[in-house]
Amino acid sequence: MKHLLPSLFQQGVVTVFAYGQTGSGKTYTVASTTQDACNELFAIAPGGSTFYMSFFEIYGGKASDLLNDKKKLAIMEDAKGKIQVQGLEEKPASSAKNMIDIINFGHEQRTTH
After folding, report:
1. Which end is more exposed in the chain, N or C (fewer Cβ atoms within 10 Å of the end residue's Cβ)?
2. Cβ of 23: how many Cβ atoms within 10 Å?
3. What angle do helix axes 26-44 and 96-109 make, rounded to 10 degrees?
4. In whole angstroms, how far apart are CA 50 and each of 14, 80, 81, 94?
5. 5-109 under CATH 3.40.850.10, yes or no
6. What is the pLDDT of residue 84?
């Protein structure tokens, strides 16, 4: 992900999407790069930057906000053809540690079986 992060500062979008069978290693794979990516993001960001984060899951065909008590979400396409997640809460992160804490909280809320 490191080479993708600078594009965020040119109005780019970076999305990490992990899809696969339960127990296939998605969490392990993503977690192994998270801390480095957060540290790198704040290293290249202008001083005093704040990032806004959201964290949701799609499980059993339903979307839930993992930063807002698993509130049910609606995923829709807008008139411009862009996907919108309605009702998704955003949390501010003003440091790498704060960002990692938000990510860890979201991970703890995930549905696991």
Report:
1. C
2. 9
3. 160
4. 16, 28, 28, 4
5. yes
6. 94
Q: For 39-64, how does the pLDDT look when each residue is reduced to its tens digit (9 = 90+)?
A: 999 999 998 999 999 999 999 999 99
Copy the structure tokens of residue 66.
């993992």
Domain ranges of the chain: 5-109
Q: Is 46 exposed, middle or buried (0-12, 13-18, 19+ CB in 10 A)?
A: exposed
Overall average pLDDT of the 27-49 stretch: 88
What is the C-alpha separation between 30 and 46, in angstroms, rounded? 25
Q: What are phi and psi of 48, to 5 degrees?
A: 80, 10
Q: Where are the alpha helices (DSSP H) in the chain?
A: 26-44, 96-109
